[in-house]
Amino acid sequence: MILGARAPALAVLTGSFQIRREDNQKMNRREFNIGLMVGSGAFAFHRSAFAKQPQLGVNGARLNEHLKALSEFGKNPQGGVSRVAYSEADRLGREYVTGLMLAAKLNVTVDAAGNIIGRRAGSDPRLKPILFGSHIDSVPEGGNYDGDVGSMGAIEVAQTLAENNVVTRHPIEVVIFQNEEGGLIGSAAMSGALTEKELDNVSRSGKTIREGIKFIGGDPAKLSAVKREKGSIAAYLELHIEQGGTLEAEKIDIGVVEGIVGINWWDVTIEGFANHAGTTAMNNRQDALLAAARFIEAVNRVATSVPGRQVGTVGRIQALPGAPNVIPGKVILSLELRDLDSAKIEMLYQKIRAEADQIAQASKVKFDFKEINVNIPAPTDSRIRAIIDESAKELGLTTKVMPSGAGHDAQDMARLGPVGMIFVPSIGGISHSPKEFSRPKDIENGANVLLGAVMRVDKGSV
Ligand SMILES: [Zn+2]
Fold first, then answer.
1. For 80, 112, 233, 438, which has the most beta carbons within 10 A of its beta carbon?
2. How far away, in angstroms, is 147 Cα from ligand 1 center?
3. Cα–Cα distance between 55 and 29 in angstroms, integer?
4. Ligand 1 centre distance from Cα of residue 71 (Å)
5. pTM of the model as a whole
6. How many angstroms separate the alpha carbon of residue 138 from the centre of ligand 1?
7. How far is Cα 330 from Cα 337, in angstroms, rounded to an integer?
8. CA–CA gap between residue 269 and residue 292 (Å, rounded)
9. What is the distance in A from the centroid of ligand 1 to the CA of 235?
10. 432 with 142: CB under 8 angstroms?
C-alpha cells in the first residue's frame, strides 16, 4: 500500500490504515476529518497492540443498501431473485452494478466473455493486478446473498479505498464474473478453460452461452483475448456466504476457506431384466431398482466409513420401464463424490466400485459407470489464508478454517495465481433459495476482512 503524498502522517502498520501516535499532533485537514469520522463511529477500532487507533473500514450501511437495491432486479414473490445469467433481469442488474463501479472510481470495461471488470491503476506499473469480486447471476428461485455479497463487498472495498485516497501499489481489478451458476462460465473464459463446444450449450435463460455472451455485451469470437496467463495475477480474493450452517452453529464470524472441493460425477447404469411383476417368483428376479437401493445404501456407508468431510450422494434416479406391474429392468442414477483431496475421491470411488461388484453378483445385475464431469479440487494459498485470518483477528473477529463444499469462480482463478476466500455465516445454512439470509453485520465484517486482506496482499505479503 502506498499512501498519497498529501498524507504524510498516515503510516502502514500490519497492512492497515492507521495514524501513528507521534504524528497525531501534525494532522492536516483530511486526517482531522478522518478523526471526526472515527469519533462518529464511521470507522472500526481494532483491538490489537495499537488499540484506540483508527482503521480504514467499509461503510456497512451503504454496502447493505446496495445489496438491497440489487435484489430488486429479478425479484420474485417469495422474496428472492430469479436472475439467471443472460436474462433481462441479469442485464439490468449488471447495469446497476456498472454504475456502482463507476461511482467507486473504477475504470469499467466488459471483456469479450462478458465479465464486468473495474480497474484502477496502482502506483507501481510493474506489479500484477490484485483481483477481487464474485458474481450477480442467480439460480432460478435463488436468494439475495449468493454472489451478491461478494460483488457488493468488492465494490464497497474499492469505494472505501477511493474515498480515503488510498493508492495501492498494485493495480486493483473488481471482477463481476458472468454466469457463475451455469458452470463458472466467465471465470473459465479467463482461465482458458471455456471450450468452443460449451458455447453451444443452452443456458437457463434459453439462450446458448454464445448468444448470452453477445446479449451482455461480450464477443464470443474473441474469447482468446480474455484468457490470462498463469502467474499474471498477484492474487484473487472472494468474499462469499458460507452456504452451509457451520459458522452460524458454532457462532464463528469468518470462515477461512482452505480450498474448494473437487467434484466427480458419474452416471451409473444398472442392467437387470424387466419381467412380469405378478408371475416372476421372488427368487427368480433381476431387479435393477432393488440393486440400486442396495447401491445407494452402500454409497452412504462408504462415504461415512473414513474420517473427514468427504460427501457422497445419489441425487437422481430413473427406473425403466417405470410401471407398477413390471420389475424394473434398468436403472440410471447419478453418483457424486466431493472432497478437497482427489486421491481420497479416487479411494472412495474404488470402494464403491467394489461394493457394486458384490451387489451385481448377489442381485444378478450389471453395473456400468460413466464419468460425466470432474472438477479438480482447488486449494487456496496458505499465505492468503494467513492474511485473511490476521485481518479478521485484527478486527476482533473469530475464524475457522473450512472447505468450500460448493464450486466458485475462485477455483478457475486458482489456475492463474494464489487465491483466497472469505466466508460469512448463512443463517440456517440455507442457500440457492429465497430463504437465504446473512446478517448485515456479518456482511460488513466480511467486507472489512476483504479490505484488510487486499491491503496486506498489496503490501507484498504474497
Ligand atoms: Zn456463488
1. 438
2. 4
3. 18
4. 15
5. 0.79
6. 8
7. 23
8. 9
9. 19
10. yes
Q: For residue 291, what is its C-alpha cell?
A: 440393486
Please give the pLDDT value at position 271: 98
Q: What is the Å distance from ligand 1's center to 450 Cα?
A: 16
In the numeric block, the cell 476483504 is attached to 450
Cβ proximity of 43 and 36 under 8 Å: no
- CA nearest to 172, candidates 235, 96, 256, 257: 235
Q: Is the pLDDT of residue 44 over 80?
A: no
pLDDT, position 51: 45
170 contacts 392 by C-beta, under 8 angstroms: no
> What does the block give as the cell for 196?
468452443
% of the chain beyond a pLDDT of 70: 88
- Whole-number Å distance between alpha carbons of 240 and 133: 9
d(CA 224, CA 220): 9
Q: Exposed, middle or buried, 125 (CB in 10 Å: 0-12/13-18/19+)?
A: exposed
From CA 241, how far away is CA 409, in angstroms rounded? Answer: 14
> Coil, strand or helix: which one is 65?
helix
Of 38-42, 62-66, 253-257, 309-313, the range with the lowest mean pLDDT is 38-42
Residues 6 or more apart whose CB falls under 8 angstroms from that of 93 comprise 70, 73, 74, 83, 136
How far, in Å, from the CA of 146 to the mean position of ligand 1? 5
